[in-house]
Specification:
MetI-like fold; 2 domains; 13 helices
């Protein structure tokens, strides 16, 4: 039995080492989770806290004692925030739909080797992927097209992303050619093949690209900062930048003439929460397509 004692001690040492490593990993994971979750909870709590608790906490509240939706009622009662929310929703929906239509049709055309001007257009897409225009050329183009102070200035300059075109093209090229040949034998033209064969089989990559495009439109404030001078046409992210990042004061006239306003911190956090809700709600429904769309669409084999 004494011969087994060193093995037992070694086994106990290995077990203790594994437990220590596991505990260290768990501690690090908890720290990183807390670094992400605690600020998010603080944002929501501050938006729900009443005036007394916000002033007592000096701004940020970790847990609301008496939750109140006064801040949300104030920012959604009319005025700059409500109008900006509608602008962002409209721009995101229209921009995402148009972008998906243009991206998928362009990717399908580039996936067919015999299509018109296949190689020159593909080289142009690859060139645009590697070399992007600067701020001044973009501004001059938008101005030359007469799109300043227009909602189209928030949609058209970023309508086509070369990376998305390449990913969707690679995904379509992975679809078995026998399916397309069978559709043509049955008498389907290119449009019918695209609608009835390609699109149904491309749901995974379209979900991923659609999420990328929608998040880009929803979070884009820089184009609005450059091209939109009329404050009535500001998207929500530009309002967020103005009143939260730059800490501008929200007055009663900015919020539809409300008689009494919650604290500025609660109003700012309410705007921030409203700007996060759409992405948080949409992402879980597209998550199951995410990995499949990225992996299959990015690799051709």
């Amino acid at each position: 039995m004494s011969l087994h004692f060193p093995q037992v001690r070694r086994l106990r040492a290995l077990t203790a080492a594994r437990i220590s490593v596991g505990a260290a990993k768990a501690a690090v994971l908890l720290i990183f989770c807390a670094a992400v979750v605690v600020p998010f909870i603080s944002i929501i709590s501050t938006s729900l806290a009443d005036s007394r608790q916000v002033y007592a906490a000096g701004g940020l509240v970790l847990w609301p004692e008496r939750p109140s939706f006064d801040a949300y009622r104030a920012v959604l009662s009319g005025g700059v925030v409500s109008r900006a929310l509608l602008v962002s929703i409209g721009v995101t929906l229209v921009g995402t739909l148009l972008s998906l239509v243009v991206t998928t049709t362009m990717a399908y055309g580039l996936s067919r080797s015999g299509s018109f001007a296949h190689k020159p257009i593909l080289m142009l897409v690859l060139f645009a992927l590697l070399f992007t225009p600067g701020i001044i050329p973009n501004y001059l183009m938008v101005k030359g097209l007469g799109l300043l102070d227009s909602y189209w200035s928030l949609i058209l300059p970023v309508l086509v992303n070369p990376f998305n075109v390449i990913v969707v093209r690679a995904f379509i090229m992975n679809i078995p050619a026998d399916l397309i040949d069978a559709a043509k034998i049955d008498g389907a033209n290119e449009f019918q093949t695209f609608v009835r064969i390609i699109l149904p089989l491309s749901k995974a990559v379209l979900a991923v690209v659609g999420l990328f495009v929608a998040v880009g439109y929803w979070n884009n404030f820089f184009n609005a900062l450059l091209y939109i001078n009329d404050q009535t046409k500001w998207p929500l992210q530009l309002v967020l930048r103005t009143y939260v990042v730059n800490n501008a004061t929200l007055s009663a006239s900015d919020l539809g003439g409300a008689e009494s306003l919650p604290p500025q911190q609660s109003l700012q956090m309410a705007i921030l929460v409203i700007s996060l809700i759409p992405i948080v709600l949409i992402y879980p429904f597209l998550q199951r397509h995410f990995a499949k769309g990225v992996l299959v669409g990015a690799v051709k084999g």
